Amino acid sequence: MEQTSLSILKQYWGFDKFRPLQEEIIHEVLLGKDTLGLMPTGGGKSICFQVPALLKEGICIVISPLIALMKDQVENLRKKQIPAIAIFSGMSKREIDIALDNCIFGNIKFLYLSPERLYSDLVQERIRHMKVNLWAIDEAHCISEWGYDFRPAYLELSKLRELHPKVPMLALTATATPVVVDDIQEKLGFPEPNVFKKSFRRENLGYMLFNEENKMGRMLKVIKKMGGTGIVYVRNRRETQEVARYLLNHGVPADYYHAGMEMADRMQKQEAWTKNKIRVIVATNAFGMGIDKPDVRFVIHLDIPDSLEAYYQEAGRAGRDGKKAYPVLLYQQADRDELWEHVELSFPDFKFIQQVYHYLANYFQIALGAGQGMTFDFDVVEFAKKYKLELLKCMSALKFLERDKWLSLTEAVYIPARIKFEVDFQELYKFQVRSANYDNLIKAILRIYGGVFDYYVPINEFELAKKIGKSIDEVRHMFQMMQQYEIASYLAKTDKPQLTFLQARVDYKNLHIDMGFIAQRKEFKKEQVKAIYHYLDTKDCRSLALQHYFGEVSEEPCGVCDLCVTRNFKTEQAEKIRLQIQQRLLEKPMTLHELIDSLEIGKEDMRLQVLRNLLDAKEVVLHENLYSWPVF
Questions:
Q1: What pLDDT score was predicted for residue 1?
Q2: ∠ CA(80), CA(84), CA(86), 5° rounding?
């Protein structure tokens, strides 16, 4: 029976129908058209490229900015028995070589790459020999020169067309302003505009915003009132622990999460929250990307996010099950001021960038003219502390060094230990006979892990140590010895960020940095901050403010945000006051004080406002200091 998009969806995902826009986007892709899809967080973007890629012969190459997201998607595809692999920093050259060969000669359907990987001549040459059926560009707002999450390598993606000119491109993002939408299509070389956009309105989300002096107290009230699980976002790692401790001390099961923690700890905390063993996870913005927990009832921000794009994505992690949920933003005037100060720190001057480059080369003991292609584990916090550099300013300098291709820096990600046997089965057996103390370890590997003769296989060293009755250090030493004997290739686990020098070290006085770009970027960032201020100060409707920012024309208030709820309450209260005024004045004319004091609803200023409105509308008449309700 011929497969269709719907049959693929049912077979692998178990759904009987597509979500809004998915089917339309898939149809365009199958027609071979370049397409841009704008779908809110949790809208099912990945299915838009996974379904058509499974329908077509060949491999889909997915460009994604986050290693953790790539690994998560690859793992989910493999659980569905769909062959998929990812190539990222931390893998050895040989490991990458084997993975690329499997994409050419094996049955791999999805290859996930970071945009930086496409700089490699090896990767580009291998892609030429692959039967590519689709380019899928995830988080496509990064393509735009003005995208909020700037990744310089995304600006090179149009070069993919040189490798396979007839293969269509599908770009996907949750957040893009009209300027960014146009820029994405221009940068990718779309022959004609082709945009599918889902409304940025999330009907089930009631956006709430409070200018609050006691943010911790208000947060606690919100959590206790809302029920269910949620996320609290804070700006730095120290705050994650302080806020989690505060919640625990007030009877709320909570834990903290940030990128500086060991990967095993992060995974354990994330799983505990996902399975509702804890109610609240307090995190930096390192948490949430790629996590599809449907029943999040609230997302609370204790600090103002850097942009409305970031806020929309983070707030959108609430209510993915379609039920009522509340993104809540708590702020003070000091937070507003700090946001503007962050802009200044995010765009350092040329002298500071030179200084960071000089310190970086000394830190890793790179000689002049050396270092090109060298990769190191890198802890930016430790580096900034050593040279007494302001952290945000230092990280910004690294970004601009990366943009001008002096270096590349990946996020921290856990990569497990891997092993591959470099001899055939007969040679391995001879080794087992000669070296009896390795026999149990080799047998355990062969029993637990498949494909170990063909490619690098992730292994659990603790599990292997337990099975053969040895310590973890003994097992690691045995792997290292097997590598020395050239029986196997062994790659130790890592969870550090990776920094790679892309060019040989130059004297810092010869460092070229595009300061014109930095000045343009700074102006754009200022506009983003002004947009946040507008969101904070709007008197109309929070949802409408977000929709208008993303270029969506709508004038229908959501009815569920803090402004709409307050306005609706005042309208209902005003109508009740009006009816009571009518009732009192139909009984007899009254003086102002008599009338206002006789009312039982609302505060005095509200009662006076309603009375003024009735006078203006001539529903109430004032004659000789007496108010009356005329009967016509």
A1: 47
A2: 135
Record the tokens describing residue 610, joined without a space: 């309603």
Print the domain residue range for 136: 5-197
Q: In terms of Cα–Cα distance, which of 482, 483, 444 is closest to 463?
A: 444
Same domain, 478 and 504: no
Whether residue 507 is found in the same domain as residue 609: no
57 falls within a domain: yes
Tens digits of per-residue pLDDT, 572-595?
888 899 999 999 999 999 999 999
Q: What is the pTM of this model?
A: 0.74
DSSP 534-558: HHHH-SS-HHHHHHHHTT-------
Same domain, 402 and 445: no
Domain count, the chain: 5
pLDDT score for 142: 82
Residue 470: partners with Cβ closer than 8 Å, 6 or more residues away:
441, 478
CB neighbour list of residue 627: distance below 8 Å, 6 or more residues apart: 585, 589, 590, 591, 592, 595, 611, 620, 621
User: Residue 273 has which token pair?
Assistant: 């929250």
Q: What is the pLDDT of residue 554?
A: 87
Which tens digits make up the pLDDT trace of 369-390?
999 989 888 888 899 999 999 9
422 and 380 belong to one structural domain: no
